[in-house]
Amino acid sequence: MFTARVNRLKSEVVTFTELRDLEDLICSTMGEDVWLAILEFTQGKNEELENELENLKEDLETSEKLVQTYGENMQDIKDKIDALTKYVDNAKRLDKRGLRRRLEEIEFILYKSL
After folding, report:
1. In terms of pTM, does the model score above 0.70?
2. Are 1 and 15 in contact (CB under 8 A)?
3. SS3 content of the chain, % helix, strand, coil (to 5)
4. Cα–Cα distance between 60 and 69 in angstroms, integer?
């Protein structure tokens, strides 16, 4: 809703609740061509905003999926690191190949997430 001071034969304050409320005023003072141009402009702006909103919704869905995937990958990495820590803590002698294999698993998860 907006309020405007309109000068006809006398000055008066008129309150408008939507664009259609301006139709008679614009048509009588500026002509029907101006009114049609205003409608076309506002319709174009509405379409642009709707398209932008749809794109933002798609971007949000994509971002949510990425965050979920990264969260799952980080949980996998945490589990692998916990298992590696437990392996090192419980080992009497460390096996280089076993350590290397477990580190390569972590590296693979990180590589896959990029």
Report:
1. no
2. yes
3. 75, 10, 10
4. 14
